[in-house]
Specification:
single chain; seven-stranded antiparallel sheet; 14 helices; Protein Transport Mog1p, Chain A
């Protein structure tokens, strides 16, 4: 099975674990799926349905990467399947019984030779830390299909903190790596600070200071360093001011390593043997240009008639954008996601519209009113399936960020307005 199909099948399998309510954000599908390559190498267990959908924005800064020992997982965990466990199923491929040997072979191409063992990575991990003790260290060597990683609990005498690093290879010119070293917009994610700098060797280093839960329901801080090199090496380090990512009390005011120490840890040449043992990642194909305006421009045009001021904008890519609306009653996030049909698997969104309302022009429409992740947060959406197979999802939140606390009682856009936007005649003018 081609890599792109194998990965698409894995994503569909993740989506099948959710109700239609959850799958509308998981369903970014094939085009955005390749950005999960780095996550699959590191066996994602943190994050949520939202993190999968916006892996290049909020999700890139809140998802865990360390496979084991780093998290008990939140109630809404969306775990990416291991490469060997995802069956080839979907609209155009019948489900297979058995162990999925085709995907096993594809997954093996992601593993290294095993030249660097788990014990060696633990040794490097300990060597790079300043004076203190390391307990509960776990690791995977380069022979593992899910990729090398190491984490543990570090105590410098000022309190225990969880620390972990994931190692992988990505296309150095692809969107995955660009997303991972780009600071997120505060229109999408609330955090304390973030910087992204170009190093002398051409690498890019992103340093991020945020929280385990963006709504800050607990005081656990998440600090992160992500290094991407011109060779396609990716080093992703996360640390917390608690003995575990989730489920443990805060033990210190900040994570154990300062940003300067985190930079030194992430950029150490001692990680290079493990990275060099991994095969190069396949090149990411360039996405075809969308027929109409970008999602951010389209959403602004569709909102223009309502006279609601736009306080912020985050353009994830041509097909996904967020606007922060401010009508004077509290800021409110709105989003637009455009998902054209697949040329390889036509009709890929049809199952999500089973039993949907059908408009006179053949457009199918469904509506959802759900709770967000924070207490009292609302997430309203209307999605349509146009006659040409394009899926359009318009959402509104009573928060100013995807995972933030409520800023108002209801979203700024009513369900009626969401419906008007999703079914606007302008979609035909836009070419969808």
């Amino acid at each position: 099975m081609p890599f792109e199909d194998e990965l698409g099948a894995a994503l569909r399998r993740v989506g099948d674990g959710f109700t239609a309510d959850g799958r509308d954000l998981v369903g970014a599908g094939e085009r955005r799926g390749r950005r999960l390559v780095a996550r699959r190498r590191a066996a994602v267990v943190g994050g949520s349905t939202l993190a999968l959908a916006v892996i290049g924005t909020a999700g890139a800064y809140t998802g865990g990467l360390f496979g084991s020992g780093g998290s008990d997982g939140p109630p809404n965990v969306a775990t990416a399947p291991s490469p060997s466990s995802a069956p080839a199923s979907g609209p155009s491929a019948p489900a297979k019984s058995g162990s999925g040997e085709g995907e096993d072979e594809a997954a093996k191409k992601l593993a290294g030779s095993g030249a660097v063992t788990a014990d060696q990575l633990i040794s490097v991990f300990k060597q790079l830390l300043p004076g203190g003790s390391v307990t509960d260290a776990t690791a995977r060597g380069t022979a593992e299909l899910t990729g090398p990683m190491v984490n543990g609990v570090f105590d410098d005498g000022k309190g225990k903190g969880s620390l972990g690093v994931g190692l992988s290879r990505v296309d150095p010119k692809g969107r995955t790596v660009a997303d991972m070293v780009k600071c997120p917009s505060k229109a999408v994610l609330d955090y304390d600070s973030c910087s992204s700098e170009k190093l002398e060797d051409g690498s890019t280093l992103m340093l991020f200071q945020g929280y385990e839960y963006p709504d800050r329901r607990v005081d656990t801080k998440r600090w992160r360093a992500t290094l991407a090199t011109p060779q396609g090496y990716l080093v992703d380090v996360q640390e917390f001011n608690a003995a575990a990512e989730k489920g443990k009390p805060v033990t210190r005011s900040t994570p154990p390593l300062t940003l300067a120490q985190l930079k030194t840890f992430a950029t150490s040449p001692l990680w290079l043997p493990a990275l060099a043992d991994l095969p190069a990642a396949p090149a990411e194909p360039v996405a075809p240009a969308a027929p109409g305006p970008k999602a951010a421009d389209a959403l602004e045009q569709l909102l223009s008639g309502y006279g609601i001021p736009v306080a912020g904008k985050e353009e994830f890519d041509a097909e996904l954008a967020y606007l922060v609306l401010d009508d004077g009653k509290g800021q409110s996030l709105a989003s637009l996601q455009i998902q054209p049909d697949s040329k390889n698997r036509p009709g890929m969104w049809a199952e999500l519209f089973a039993g949907a309302e059908i408009l006179p022009d053949g457009t199918k429409i469904v509506s959802h009113q759900r709770r967000g992740e924070a207490a009292g947060a609302d997430w309203w959406s209307v999605e349509v399936l146009r006659k040409n197979g394009t899926r359009v999802i318009v959402s509104a939140y009573n928060t100013k960020t995807l995972k933030g606390a409520p800023t108002r009682q209801d979203p700024a856009l009513t369900m009626q307005r969401l419906r008007e936007i999703a079914t606007s005649p302008k979609w035909t003018e836009f070419g969808y």
